[in-house]
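Below is how a single chain appears once it has passed through the pipeline. First comes the sequence as given, then the structure the pipeline wrote out for it. We keep one example in the README because the format questions we get most often are answered faster by looking than by reading.
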Amino acid sequence: MMLSPRLLLLRSAASLTTRALSQGGVSARGTAPDMVEVRNRLREIVGASTNWSDHQQALADRVSLSSMLANSQSDLPTKKMKDSRLEVHLPLGSQPQLREKYLTFHNTVRFGRILEDLDSLAVLISYSHTHNEALPRSPLSIVTALVDKIDMRKHIIYPDCDIKFTGHVTWVGKTSIEAKMHVSQYYDGTYNPVLDATFVMVARDPENKRAAYVNPLKPEGPEEEKLFQEGEINRARRVELSTASLLKVAPTAEERNIVHTLFLNTLDNKTVSFRSRVLPPNSVWMEDAKIKGLEICHPQERNIFNRIFGGFLMRKAYELGWTNACSYGRCRPRLVAVDDILFQKPVEIGSLLLFSSQVCYTEGNNIQVRVHTEVLDPLTRQHNTTNIFHFTFASDSQVPSIVPKTYGESMLYLDGKRHFNQTLVH
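Resulting structure:
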């Protein structure tokens, strides 16, 4: 994943810092290093070129790294949580020139940019965990598989106060890594929590075609044991949710009753017909609560593996979802949570990427938005899903109820309700 050039790296327990950095997060020039240096070092680690014209040769060079992959996880040394611990600062307060990139027209911080930075940090954390000093380049292609959860602790991020990102690996499978990150902002003389995030990363071979083993993780002490167990619980929950997906199995009896009640509420009492439908008061048909967008995927938005940067996709999806919630609630909504962002397929450079944002569930002043992205092949007209995003927003006042009309929309409604309830649990 391509790292944000505006973040300043303060400390890394692993050896992924640039050679120009000395202890304490100060470079050889005597100034705090910027993320351009870190990004260049990360490119060195995977052998990526800074020039798009060289990408084919860079990909060919990585093929030879396959011989460096471990044959089993037991062949890799066990790592500790502290090996991947990172602290990164975004000096919006002390460096006003950085604010332009992160500023909204309402003089707040663009949350989409924070999503980009979290994605970059998650990749850096994962490479810290898997770093092998004996290898000049990493044979692993580490990419984002899932944004498990982002919980907002504060709904306003100030544009003129420094931000701090911290995080480390908390759980490891055979080929996957869970990284927890925390964002805080400095004001009133201390750093105050803004959000907590959990990302799931996967390791693949140099060609990004098949899974590759990662170093096992050994927790130390009760606190780390608890974090590791939470990772096991998260994995089991993900498996359970996938098994119970409405795309695979029928809704529960309770959910079927909900759908039937919604249907009965739309019947016209004058005609009493299955075909005659009436919108209830203070409601909106689901088909009237969607916004679509299109992106042409240019090389400028590529990651270190020459595919579209996952953080860029998250930013675009969030901003479209926010726009939909804003239009639906007729207000500036605040983000409550980001849940279950699934990266199904990588997006290639040159793709035509379609975004479809849908308000799929409402409750009180809450708006659940689902954003679906797919690649369109203009020659064959085929559509292939690449990502699914789930955002929970809150309005200042109660919003109209969303009402499905078809069976497919009813399934979207139930899926949105499930994600909203999951937000309440956390």
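The mean pLDDT is 86.

See the next section for the split statistics.
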